[in-house]
From TrEMBL:
Stored PANTHER family: ATP-BINDING CASSETTE SUB-FAMILY F MEMBER 1, ATP-BINDING TRANSPORT PROTEIN-RELATED
Positions of the ABC transporter domain: 11-263, 360-562
Alphabetically ordered keywords of this record: ATP-binding, Coiled coil, Nucleotide-binding, Repeat
Coiled-coil regions listed in the entry: 262-289
Protein's name in the database: ABC-F family ATP-binding cassette domain-containing protein
Length: 563
């Protein structure tokens, strides 16, 4: 039965289930979000966070069932921006305000009708309705609200006549977020809303969400944002649930902060592992007891003629007791085998940088050097040198030139002036912000083998990296989530480790657990690492050098911490 939709001022799900053929995404989800509440969705990549948000927004899902209650006007922010490169940013903003502009026009027309209409009562009623709608939409402050949102998200300096194809990926995402906020729906659904926000923009969004009158549901990997913005959490990770073999793994609602939830989840995982170990030990003891007790009957000596009667009587009593113990042990064994908790699944985690042919020749020297490099009006770098084991974090607001700098280092962006020198044989790998695979019908396993070659793919199997779940290895890459595709892109880079590893917002679209594992692995990476990131958690833990850009120029350079 398809999903049944009902209208209300709150958002409620009852028994939601979604499957794609034989693959169940989630089953029997139930939760409620009242006006003013903000529910954060968490879980590993691919557990169904984006699918759930689309379903809540009213999108059709194959093999979906359950009951949804929600407001009539629901706004959805997707990770993928739904704009064409030829769209003008001003048109996108005005389209978001179309409903408010229509209310404003109706108010003007109703006001004119008061003087011109021959039916004074009807004209007055029309004007009253239009005035009420205008007051609820606050049409008189719409231009001020537009400017406030654009400024708060760091978009005020971008001309409204610019084409979407002319702005950065982060700026496109922020225009999509601005348009959604200006549309002011009754309920907000946000998929990774902080992926392209700097500190100021993230703080602005947090304040907006805390003041939002309707229900808010958002999926995020950003721990700081979850702690500050969420009033509750919904964990969709099936590994979270301690279930019997026959039970259906569901989701868990938690009413505290994300930091508190991490501690609670770790405690429950430890209890689950202890319970599993205790039950497996008890199963081994019961199986041994059943086998040994059953053999007892056949290992006694035969009776003499004088005590045959007594011995027969005693043996009969003994056999009954042994038989009873066997039956009791068999009953406990059968019950425990049926009701035992399943083994806690190993979390899908980053297994570290694999070994491989990484080293250049042993001679010392820089890997790369930029001298007086500029790229139009996007970047101007006087000098930048990369040593063989350099660790450099590039920071700055959106549009500051971080991605452009990585593009120059990768050889994908040609400087308009200056020189870029690289060591002979240097191999550079770039993990881009926006992952696009040319052939969406090809599987991750096939892409991996094609990119690495059959021999290297055998030496470093895709499964050994812990980035692509076995169940996803042979699915078309086009049906994978954005996070799953980014995991694959990461695998394609690290399976043949480059001498210079460039990462553009590496924690975007990755689960918090994997992002942490990636950061730890990069600390021992056998080459140079350059990261461009807004991630507040990553930046707080960073011990390497830092280069802060402002409007394409170096604003500050901080050397790596000693040790």
């Amino acid at each position: 039965m398809p999903v049944q939709f009902h209208l209300s001022d709150h958002l409620r799900a009852d028994g939601l289930s979604v499957a794609y053929g034989e693959r169940r995404v989630f089953a029997d989800l139930s939760f409620a979000v009242s006006p003013g509440e903000r529910l954060g969705l968490i879980g590993e990549n691919g557990v169904g966070k984006s699918t759930l948000l689309r379903l809540l927004a009213g999108g059709a899902q194959p093999e979906a069932s359950g009951r949804l209650t929600r407001p009539s006007r629901v706004g959805l922010l997707l990770q993928e921006v739904p704009f064409a490169p030829t769209d003008r940013v001003g048109d996108i903003v005005e389209d978001a305000l179309a409903e408010v502009r229509a209310i404003e026009r109706e108010l003007d027309a109703a006001a004119e009708g008061l003087a011109a209409s021959t039916d004074a009562a009807a004209a007055a009623e029309r004007y009253a309705r239009a005035l009420d709608a205008a007051e609820r939409a606050d049409v008189w402050s719409v231009d001020a609200r537009r400017d406030e949102v654009l400024d708060g998200l760091g978009l005020a300096s971008i001309g409204l006549g610019r084409l979407i194809g002319e702005v950065s990926g982060g700026q496109r995402s922020r225009f999509a977020l601005a348009a959604l906020l200006l549309r002011a729906p009754d309920a907000l659904l946000l998929d990774e809303p902080t992926n392209h926000l700097d500190d100021g923009a993230a703080a602005f969004l947090e304040a907006r969400l805390r003041a939002w009158r309707g229900p808010v549901v958002f999926a995020s990997h950003d721990r700081a944002f979850l702690d500050r913005a969420a009033t509750g959490l919904l964990d969709l990770d099936p590994a979270r649930v301690v279930a019997t073999r026959d039970a259906v793994a569901g989701a868990t609602v938690f009413g505290g902060t994300f930091t508190e939830y991490l501690a609670a989840k770790a405690d429950e995982r430890a209890r689950w592992e202890r319970q599993y170990d205790d039950e497996q030990g008890e199963l081994r003891r019961l199986r041994l007891a059943v086998a040994e007790t059953a053999r007892d009957v056949s290992h006694r000596r035969g009776p003499t003629d004088n005590d045959k009667y007594v011995t027969k009587f005693k043996h009969s009593r003994t056999d009954q007791a042994i038989s009873r113990r066997v039956r009791n042990a068999e009953g406990r064994l059968e019950t425990l085998e049926r009701e035992q908790v399943r083994k806690p699944p190993a979390p899908l985690a980053f297994a570290g940088i694999p070994p491989g042919s990484h080293a250049l020749d042993e001679s010392s020297g820089l890997l790369a050097q930029l001298t007086d490099v500029s790229v139009d009006d996007r970047l101007a770098i006087g000098s930048l040198q990369l040593a063989p084991t350099a660790r450099l974090l590039v920071t700055g607001a959106n549009g500051a030139g971080k991605s452009t700098l990585l593009g120059v280092l990768a050889g994908r962006v040609a400087p308009t002036r200056g020189s870029v020198q690289r060591r002979k044989g240097l191999r550079v790998g770039l993990l881009e912000q926006d992952v696009r695979f040319e052939h969406p019908d090809v599987s991750p396993r096939a892409l991996y083998e094609r990119a690495l070659g059959e021999r290297r793919a055998e030496q470093v199997p895709l499964a050994s990296l812990g980035l692509v779940a076995p169940r996803d290895a042979d699915r078309p890459v086009g049906v994978l989530s954005v996070g799953q595709q980014r995991r694959l892109a990461l695998a394609l880079v690290i399976a043949r480790p480059p001498h210079v590893f460039l990462l553009d917002e590496p924690t975007n679209h990755l689960s918090l657990g994997l992002a942490t594992d990636l950061e730890d692995a990069l600390g021992t990476y056998p080459g140079a690492v350059v990261i461009a990131s807004h991630d507040r958690w990553l930046r707080a833990r960073w011990a390497g050098g830092e280069l802060r850009l402002e409007a394409g120029r170096v604003a500050e350079e901080v050397p790596a911490l000693a040790g």
